[in-house]
Amino acid sequence: MYMIFNKMTAALALGCAAVAVSMPSLAAPAQAESDSARLDQAVLALRSISTLKADFTQADRSGQMVRGELTLKRPGRIRFEYDDSVNMLIVGDGKSLTMVDYDVRQVQRWPIRNSPLGALLDPSRDLKRYGTLKPTANPDVLSVEVRDTKHPEYGVITLIFVRDASAPGGLELVSWVSLDSQNKRTTIRLANHRYGLAVPNRTFRWRDPRPKVRR
Hints:
Blueprint: H1 7-14, H2 35-47, E1 51-60, E2 65-73, E3 77-82, E4 88-93, E5 96-101, E6 106-111, H3 118-121, H4 127-130, E7 131-134, E8 141-147, E9 156-163, E10 171-179, E11 185-195
Antiparallel strand pairs: 1-2, 1-11, 2-3, 3-4, 4-5, 5-6, 7-8, 8-9, 9-10, 10-11
């Protein structure tokens, strides 16, 4: 079955736009914190993740949606495995993101640093340097917009965290919104987070669907 929205749009946007997030009412922190301190918390939360598995939903600007499972292993590795209705795979191996479309036997690849997802995966991308804390209605929800003003072609990603004492660093990444340089938006929401699982590096390999050329 062909993906319900353009595959390349989704893939490029994965790899940003501020978003209004509706969260349950939580108790306010005992003491107001500076933006710098809250950014430090977001940096710590990301760096504290060794491995993560989570269910995800991915939606485009029109609201069309697909589902799958995300696997993250720091530094730099990520895998988006879609459900059976989408015969596609997106894998990051620490250096590049690869989109494998098994329906049409195509493989496309681009450097992680050129993708909005570099904010999550590129160890050289300083979240505090490129990130700006955006206001939210809930003090226990952090919204961090990450953009490289010198490279607008990299796009923008807005990461949404919720305070959770059981999550690494005390914050749980619950969603992000990516906006690429063509203004194509993709929203990812995570659920059922599982941290610290053993994830072998072969998880981030992929089967090449392209026909072999005989010489």
